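R.M. (postdoc): so does anyone remember the format we settled on? I'll just put the C-alpha cells first.
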C-alpha cells in the first residue's frame, strides 16, 4: 500500500521543467497546508500572490506555516499588544502575528531590504493590518537602539528574531531590554540545519548560533524551551 502511494505523482505537474515542478509544489502546499486557523488566514493572502516563481524562493526563506501558527498562538496566549520582529523579508511571519493582534496592537517590523519590504507592505494592505504595522527600514540594531533611546524599554510583550545569524547575541541583548518581565523572545534557526551539533562545521554563522545556544542555556535572566520545529526555534521567557 505504501509503495503504491509513493509511485503516484505527488503534485499535479503542468510541465516537465524543474521550475514548473517547484511552482506546482508551492501551489499544492498553499492549497493543502492551511488546515489550521491562523495559518489559513496568513496563507489566504499569500495564496493570492501571482508570481509563483518568486514564491518558490520566498518559501525557502520564511518560516513554515506551522511555525507561523506557533508564533501567532504565543502572541494570543500572551495577550500581546506590542510586538517586535527582527528580519521581516516579505512579511509572512509578521503577517501571522499582525493578524492576531488586537486593533490597538502594534508590531515594529525591522528589515534592511527595501524590495522585501515593498512586498511585505503589499500583504499588510491586502490583509487589512497596515495600521498595526510600524515598519522600520534600517539595520535592526539601529532600530532597536532607537526604541530604547525613545524610552520604550520593558514595554514590549513579544519579539521574534529571524535576521542576521551572526548578530543573534546583539539582537537578544537589545530585545531583553525592550521586553517586559513575563514577555517572550522567540529565536529562529537555532538548529541551523543540524550544523550546530556538528563539531566539524565552524563557519561564522554556525559558530555564532552555537555560541548563542550555549549562552542562552546558562542565562538566568530567561527560562527557555528549544522547540525542534522546522529549523528549530527557542522560546525565551523573561524572568
Ligand atoms: C529569514 S528572512 C526573515 C523571514 C521572515 N521572518 C518570515 O518568516 O517571513 C531574514 C531577513 O532578515 C533581513 N536582515 C538580515 N540582516 C539584517 C539586519 N542587520 N537588519 C535588518 N534586517 C536584516 C534580511 O534582509 C531578510 O529579509
Amino acid at each position: 500500500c505504501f509503495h503504491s502511494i509513493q509511485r503516484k505523482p505527488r503534485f499535479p505537474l503542468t510541465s516537465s521543467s524543474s521550475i514548473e515542478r517547484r511552482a506546482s509544489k508551492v501551489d499544492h502546499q498553499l492549497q493543502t497546508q492551511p488546515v489550521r486557523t491562523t495559518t489559513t488566514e496568513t496563507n489566504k493572502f499569500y495564496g493570492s500572490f501571482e508570481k509563483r516563481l518568486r514564491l518558490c524562493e520566498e518559501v525557502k526563506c520564511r518560516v513554515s506555516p506551522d511555525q507561523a501558527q506557533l508564533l501567532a498562538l504565543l502572541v494570543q496566549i500572551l495577550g500581546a499588544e506590542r510586538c517586535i520582529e527582527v528580519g521581516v523579508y516579505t512579511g509572512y511571519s509578521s503577517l501571522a502575528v499582525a493578524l492576531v493582534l488586537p486593533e490597538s496592537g502594534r508590531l515594529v517590523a525591522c528589515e534592511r531590504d527595501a524590495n522585501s519590504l515593498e512586498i511585505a507592505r503589499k500583504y499588510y494592505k491586502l490583509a487589512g493590518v497596515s495600521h498595526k504595522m510600524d515598519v522600520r527600514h534600517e539595520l535592526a540594531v539601529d532600530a532597536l537602539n532607537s526604541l530604547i533611546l525613545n524610552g520604550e524599554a520593558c514595554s514590549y510583550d513579544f519579539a521574534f528574531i529571524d535576521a542576521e545569524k551572526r548578530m543573534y547575541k546583539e539582537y537578544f541583548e537589545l530585545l531583553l531590554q525592550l521586553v517586559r518581565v513575563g514577555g517572550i523572545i522567540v529565536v529562529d534557526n537555532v538548529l541551523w540545519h543540524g550544523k550546530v551539533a556538528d563539531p566539524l562545521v565552524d563557519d561564522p554563522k554556525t559558530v555564532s548560533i552555537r555560541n548563542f545556544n550555549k549562552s542562552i542555556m546558562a542565562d538566568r535572566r530567561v527560562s527557555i524551551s528549544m522547540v525542534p520545529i522546522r529549523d528549530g526555534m527557542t522560546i525565551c521567557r523573561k524572568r
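R.M.: ...and that's the designed sequence above, right after the C-alpha cells. Also worth knowing: The CA atoms of residues 161 and 187 lie 5 Å apart. Confidence is low (pLDDT under 50) at residues 1-16.
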